[in-house]
Amino acid sequence: NGIINADGELWKVQRKAGLRFFSNANLKAFIDEALPPILDDAKSLLDEAARNQTIVDMQEVFLELTTRLMGKVAYENPFWKVREYIFGASLRKALFEVHSFGENIVSAAIGKRQESVSADDKSVVQSNNPLRNNLINSLLDHISDRRIVADAAMNYLSAGRDTTAQSLTWTLYLLLRHPEHESEMIEELAGCFGTRSGSPDLSDITYDKVQPATLPYTNSVFTETLRLCPPVPFELKECTIATTFPDGTRLPQGSVVIWVPWAMGRSRQIWGEDSEFFKPARWLDASGSIGLQKSAYEFPVFNGGPRLCLGKKLAESLAVCVLAHLTWRYKFSEVLEKEGGGCGRGGERKSQNSLTLPMEGGLPVTVRLRHG
């Protein structure tokens, strides 16, 4: 019943609820309020790895971060428990546990709502803190069926958690393989935040300051990664009624349409002769600002039209914020030796067989502090 598979009125009502949840006020709260303590925990883990010179899997670090963030902003609850269910049990048991977890969270949210309702007003008392007006409450304002609310919430959260963490993993990997682009990022961060004195942290980074107008190169690094390593590498839909494409192609009811963002991101017809190369600057104009614009139908990483991904702005802002913090504070080195989980010298990391694009074997790295 979740938004990914839903159509018709069931899709429309979930879309409406999601639009409210992903408001600009909430996005600012996610990045400026919910993220910092979670990011601090990730830094503590990486600081320890730097001190002890131990190998750390950055895909796991990013998954932990996005899992906790999504749980906080959507449930005000430790969503990472779901991760334990999925990876620590058989599929059938895991699905039962996930459904039970989602329904328990919905029941708890309903209880909180009832405590906040006055005798004359059946709506939730709105908090000045956007994080209190979470995804569950937004869904409950539009949907009365608890099971549908639970399914919808799990759809939103599992999609956002996996895809963002995996995209961060591939971005770091490409920076490790192309250190000249990492140097460009560091230079941009130093110029933007005035931290040339060697400060170990970016103290003034906020939602407003991770936008393309402020950090065009860092944003272009992430966008270029999405072009080459789209988190959903292929998609398909079945026609519920007969339809016609804009070019006149007729599709009878039941036709299956497949498109492959992985291949489209490498199309020379769309991107030119250098389509297979990692070139963040392709997104910039002569002044260094974001210049290249591609329609969602040429660059369908976040879908397009009525089904444009509601979490697009959150994913982009979160990724740029995390990349800025971690690449400024740490110097990462890819572990290449196979005994350390590496792919061997001269090898390349591959994606795991999945609906999304996890990196097979994770991304093992060593870490050191850039600023002593």
Description of the molecule:
This protein is mainly alpha-helical and 372 residues long. The protein is 50% helix and 7% strand. It has helices at 8-21, 24-52, 58-75, 80-87, 91-116, 135-140, 146-177, 179-193, 216-228, 261-264, 268-271, 312-329, and strands at residues 56-57, 235-238, 243-244, 250-251, 256-259, 330-334, 364-369. It has a 3-stranded antiparallel beta sheet. Strands 2-5 form a two-stranded antiparallel ribbon. A two-stranded antiparallel sheet has the order 3-4. It is globular, with a radius of gyration of 21 Å.
SS summary, helix count: 12
The coarse overall form would be globular
**Secondary-structure element series:** HHEHHHHHHHEEEEHHHEE
Which sequence of strands runs across the widest sheet?
1-7-6
Fraction of residues in β-strands: 5-15%
Approximate helicity band: 40-55%
Instruction: State the total count of DSSP E strands.
Output: 7
Largest sheet: 3 strands, antiparallel
Which spans have pLDDT < 50 for at least 5 consecutive residues?
A: 78-92, 118-125
Mean pLDDT: 84
Q: What is the SS-derived class?
A: mainly alpha
Rg over CA atoms, rounded to whole Å, is: 21 Å
- Calculate the terminal CA-CA distance, rounded to whole Å: 51 Å
Which helices and strands, and how do they pair?
Elements: H1 8-21, H2 24-52, E1 56-57, H3 58-75, H4 80-87, H5 91-116, H6 135-140, H7 146-177, H8 179-193, H9 216-228, E2 235-238, E3 243-244, E4 250-251, E5 256-259, H10 261-264, H11 268-271, H12 312-329, E6 330-334, E7 364-369
Antiparallel strand pairs: 1-7, 2-5, 3-4, 6-7
Helix pairs in contact: 2-3, 2-12, 3-7, 4-5, 5-7, 7-8, 7-9, 7-12, 9-12
